Amino acid sequence: MSGKRSFFASKKKATNPFDSDSDDGDKKQQRPARASSVPSPAEQQDSLFGAGAGGQERGGFFSSSEAPRNSHYRNDFRDAGGLESQSVQELEGYAAYKSEETTRRAQGCVRIAEEMRDTASKTLVTVHQQGQQIHRTHMMAVDIDQDLSRSEKLLGDLGGLFSKKWKPKKNGTIRGPMLSRDDSFIRGSHLEQRQKLGLVDHPPRSNAREFRSEPTSALEKVEMEKAKQDEALSDLSDILTELKGMAVDMGSEIEK
């Protein structure tokens, strides 16, 4: 009996499909993957001035190894001991970062002012066209008043045919808007109206002036951004001057 048990036990062990090789394979499959220490492409591309708004690469003299400094620049080194405890190199990079940020904000103000100018131009043309409609309405009212005056005169001449003599009522003269423009103000086309109102189509604003070479230091970067800021502020001043003139013209149109 014991011999039979040993025979079947050995047979069962020999025919076991789960051998040691499969056990080793399972252990290999269950082994966790090693965490990769290679930084992601986004982290490699994120440099001090390499990535701007929207993650687009701007290019510059800063390498991708300086990407962690962006967080310090954004919060003004609050988590790194403040500005007083930073080195000269860190402060130069901080100044370059802030100058580029100021340039972006100045250019954003220029774009907003351009949108305001376009809206003001359309509003001024609309007010001008409404003034033309009011003028035409006034002229038609004057013609109707003259026709009524002639009709009342004819009815007065035919007073004998009526039991009661016709007595026309005396009304004041119709007064309309005072015109101070030439004939093109009345008959002009849309383009002529814009020219009369001083509204000309502005060409698209050119980008900042091109520099011969990329900046090689933080100070050169600051000077380049300063030139861009001066150009943006000059454009902004011109647009604000145009808006002021449009406001004066719009007030003159409304007062008529």
UniProtKB/TrEMBL annotation:
It comes from the Eukaryota. Keywords: Membrane, Protein transport, Transport. The keyword Transmembrane helix does not apply. InterPro entries: NPSN/SNAP25-like_N_SNARE (IPR044766). Residues 202-213 have a biased composition (Basic and acidic residues). GO terms for molecular function: SNAP receptor activity. It is found in: Membrane. GO terms for cellular component: plasma membrane; SNARE complex. PANTHER family: SYNAPTOSOMAL ASSOCIATED PROTEIN, SYNAPTOSOMAL-ASSOCIATED PROTEIN 29. Belongs to the SNAP-25 family. This is SNAP25 homologous protein SNAP33-like. It comes from Panicum miliaceum (Proso millet).
